[in-house]
What does this fold into?
Amino acid sequence: MNIEQTVMEYLRKLPPDKQQEVLDFTQFLNQKMSLPKPDPNLTPEQKSANWLAWIDSHQSSNPPLTDEPLEKFVEKSAEQNQQLTPEERTQNWLAFVETLPKQSANLPDEALHRDTMYD
It folds into this structure.
């Protein structure tokens, strides 16, 4: 029996919510593999250009939040953020978090806690 058959055998035994976790994890691994590999010979400007090109190539699966170019959006956001008090920044962050989906395709929250990260 090859690896694919073994994985499928175990996958079929799992309840649907655990099957979804397996799917999420495989999607995460595929995305991780698509990240560009850093070239130690590149200048910081070339590295930035490579990352921006990679981000642009993935915008079809992750539509942009705005029509502005990424650099201008980040600069504008940083300027606006500097004018806010820490309390206002916190309120803005919490409001943003509330807009995020309750179910994420990423790892479950338990996986990110220090006491369970390496189990």
In short: The radius of gyration is 20 Å. Residues 1-34 form one domain. The helical segments are 3-13, 16-33, 44-57, 70-82, 86-99.
